[in-house]
Amino acid sequence: MTKPLFPATFVALPQGYEEERAPFYLATEEYLAMHFPEGNYLFTWQLSPTVVMGRHQDAQLEIDQNFCRAEGIDIIRRKSGGGSVYADKGNIMTSLITGEGSVEQLFKEYAQGMASCLNALGARVEVSGRNDIVLAGGGKICGNAFYHLANRNIVHGTMLYDTDTRLMSGALTPERAKLLSKGVKSVQSRVSLLKDTLTGIGIEELRHHIRTYLTDNTLVLNETDIRAIREIEATYYDEQFLRGKSTCHTSAPMCQARIEGCGTLTLRFELEGGTIKQVMLNGDYFELDDASALFNNALAGCPFTKEALRRHITEHTPYRAIRGLNANALCSLLEKLFE
Fold first, then answer.
1. Nearest 5°: CA angle at 51, between 264 and 139?
2. How confident is the model at residue 72 (pLDDT cuts 50, 70, 90)?
3. pLDDT at position 182, please?
4. What pLDDT score was predicted for residue 187?
5. CA–CA separation, 74 vs 69, rounded Å?
6. Cα(283)–Cα(57) distance, rounded to whole angstroms?
7. How would you write 187-237 as a 3-class SS string?
8. Cβ–Cβ contacts within 10 Å for residue 67, how many?
9. Which residue of 80, 89, 102, 332 is 20 to 30 Å from 290, comparing CA positions?
10. What architecture does CATH give domain 8-243?
């Protein structure tokens, strides 16, 4: 029987590591996943104003980079999928490292555990959509993403206790398809603040409650651990990784849609004659496997016709690499190329 996620082991950093940039904490997740294979581990962290992009997102579509530079907002990219989030000292970032298991079950158990933790303080929250926790009758207060490593899974979330809504709204520019699909007018209108419902409970008290409610023992990292974490952290500053793959300023055939239960998916095709040479993917989807590899293995060399694309998708099933995507939804998206 699979061990429950909670109570987990709380991970404590050495003194002096509370003011790091986001890649340090993301690297800590990877380090724990690689070097502590048994058990489940949880830690929390906070950031100075930062935009954290999903692995497959196009910064030009998601972020107002000029605004971020002018306001001193850090921009980084994580290795998990999902959408861009703005975080500052009003957020509590949570990281959970687990063993193998079904992604759907993992997300469900994590979200339910976090919702139970908040309900215990009097916040009426519920799990919603593919990865969110929302106030009952209100807006989103916690979004989550996952990252799969060999024999391990990482789930990380952003819990919104308070924030500078001017910076949040100015930094994030979610694509129009997402806004229209949710029937909203702005980033700010989709979120709520926990401070408005947790009367008399400060952010440090909330952070302590998460620790005591969801963990029952502590692992303290040492300076040897920190040196190894720094080596992983360096990979997040690689220019090519930070830049990602842009879908802008190209004449290559491209299609985009927001697919219910999957997220936004953009496909761009490099052609050679009438044949597909390469497929490039962007979006806020979650990977279950290497989506780029599976899509290129399935479609490279395929004639660029509606019939051939449908046949290759049916035969090679590249959609299985993306959570919530199926053959019909993918074929419907690709049909837009020929409209």
1. 65
2. very high
3. 44
4. 47
5. 8
6. 5
7. CHHHECCHHHCCCCCCHHHHHHHHHHHHEEEEEECCHHHHHHHHHHHHHHH
8. 16
9. 332
10. 2-Layer Sandwich (3.30)
233 and 27 Cβ atoms separated by less than 8 Å: yes
pLDDT digits (tens, 9 = 90+) for 303-338: 999 999 999 999 999 999 999 999 999 999 999 998
Q: Are 44 and 95 in contact (CB under 8 A)?
A: yes
Tell me how far apart the 2 most distant CA atoms of the chain are, in Å: 66
**Higher-scoring residue by pLDDT: 66, 103:** 66
Burial class (CB in 10 A: 0-12, 13-18, 19+), 47: buried
Span 239-252, mean pLDDT? 73
**CATH domain 254-338 topology:** Enolase-like; domain 1 (3.30.390)
What is the predicted pLDDT for the residue at 177? 43
pLDDT band at 3 (very low <50, low <70, confident <90, very high): confident
β-bridge mates for residue 132, sequence order: 128, 143
What residues does each domain of the chain span?
Answer: 8-243, 254-338
Residue 234 pLDDT exceeds 70: yes
| pTM of the predicted structure, to 2 decimals | 0.86
Structure tokens belonging to residue 256: 């985009």
Q: Where does residue 212 rank: exposed (0-12), middle (13-18), buried (19+ CB within 10 A)? A: exposed
Backbone angles phi, psi at 324, to 5 degrees: 85, 0
Q: Are 173 and 103 in contact (CB under 8 A)?
A: no
